[in-house]
Design a protein that fits this description.
The radius of gyration is 15 Å and the shape is globular. Strands 1, 2, 3, 6, 7 and 8 form a six-stranded mixed sheet that branches. The chain has a two-stranded antiparallel sheet with strand order 4-5. The longest helix has 17 residues. 19% of the residues lie in helices and 38% in strands.
């Protein structure tokens, strides 16, 4: 699993002209799922992401977490995070999990967010979505389960 996490002042996702999810201050999480990902990867990645202390304290240091600032979470599925651009000019997406594998893990990620106290706003898996955000900082991080100790 791989996420791109952006600290935002606000973010929203729109499908067919209708806003289906929106937040104020918090994290916009773009979530990609690979064929080898497991429920354990999902749990660990969610804990890591939502536990980050990347909001500024009174001294301007990134020392506060999502709960400290009353932040929210917006999660958007993003299979293109596994795009392979190493050959030619058109990316290949064979590194992304298919829907049969990815949808249950996407749904688990949403459930893990809620279990950690951050009921997420979210898009719709596989939909054509328009994502808007006002980045804060900007602060953007990439977290991949291949770099985390799972077990």
């Amino acid at each position: 699993m791989r996420i791109v996490l952006t600290r935002v002042k606000e973010a929203s996702v729109t499908i067919d002209g209708t806003v289906v999810g929106s937040i104020g201050q918090g994290f916009l999480i773009l979530l990609g799922i690979a064929p080898e990902d497991t429920p354990a990867h999902c749990r660990k990645l969610c804990e890591k992401a939502l536990g980050l202390r990347i909001f500024e304290d009174e001294n301007g240091k990134m020392n506060l977490g999502l709960s400290d600032v009353g932040g929210s979470v917006l999660v958007v599925s993003q299979f293109t995070l596994y795009g392979d651009c190493s050959h030619g000019r058109r990316p290949g997406f064979t590194g992304a999990a298919g829907p049969d594998h990815a949808i249950p893990l996407y749904e688990q990620f949403l459930a893990e967010c809620e279990a950690l106290g951050f009921p997420p706003q979210h898009g719709v898996f596989g939909a054509d979505m328009k994502v808007a955000s006002v980045n804060d900082g900007p602060v953007t991080l990439i977290i991949d389960t291949k770099d985390l100790k799972i077990g």
